[in-house]
Amino acid sequence: MFSKLIMGVCAVSMLSSACTTRNASQQRAENELTMLVGTYTSGNSKGIYTFRFNQETGSVSPLSEIEVSNPSYLTLSADNRFVYAVSEQNDSTAAVHAFSFNKKNGTLQLLNSQKTRSEDPCYVSTDGRKVLTANYSGGTMSVFPIRYDGSLDPSDTLFQGSASGPDTDRQGTPHIHCAIFSPDSNYIFATDFSADRILRYAVHSKEELPRPLSEAVDIQPGSGPRHLIFSKNGKYAYLINELSGKVIAFAYADGRLNEIQTITADTIQARGSADIHLSPDGKYLYVSNRLKEDGIAIFEVNPEKGTLAKVGYQLTGSHPRNFNITPNGKYLLVACRDSNAIQIFERDIVSGLLKKTGEEIKMDKPVCIQFAGE
Question: Residue 360: how many CB atoms within 10 A of its CB?
């Protein structure tokens, strides 16, 4: 009887140990992200690099790389099976590339490439049916239907921006800087940088082209609207303006943006505000500033109103063009183009403030960071 009891205890103990091992293994797998980095290739960089990044410990290890010319912005499909990346070129070679993506080993395989037919594509997004590129120097938006295998059909129509802003140096010619889908994918919004407005298009099926809508969202002249993002619940949107350095908060519903607040991110008028992201829990908003006092402005989000209150500022390396936050919210990584490094900051999830870890990934001209997570 006693021996049976001992055997029973041992069996329970072994089962518990096996469960603990499985749980630890599962937890490690959940924390292991595949990170993709786009770069400028005018120096030593080859193109897109992938890394394994542990969002719990902050550890990083290289995985793979693929040669692409100036992949300054890239995005993933919702299921992480495909990657779409621009080649930001100021001539007829400007293009968008479709890749199949193996998240486990970080490898990319080119499916096909399509010309953007407009210079300097600097932003790319997808809703799973279409891919959009914002073409900065060309001042246009290109739309590419996605084929069944993730590759792209050609873009046969360009949607044109205009130039009516007062800054003759920065707004003298049309620039489209960002093009994104609304949370329900029924609308497209494009930042018309040189005309100080957000363009709005309706789109309802894979086959039809977006339809321009007459009502654009006008922004204060000389602002230079750059990047627009939506809150996870789809009720709010936030715009960073490159020239004015101001964030505009909007209430969003049924394709309409209604301004509710304007607040300054760049307090020294460096005129180089760049990227904008919400923390995964939606409680904090972050904005990067360049050219002077390079760093990240930090705002707390009012959950009921969607308005912002500034709570801090974190200095970074030189030219933080893009940054991203891990899905668990623990780390914020900054692509510092002119420091040739990705800086890793730990994020306080209660206060929203950032702390230097002292860790960074050395590489030539990093400009875009994306995570393939859970």
Answer: 19
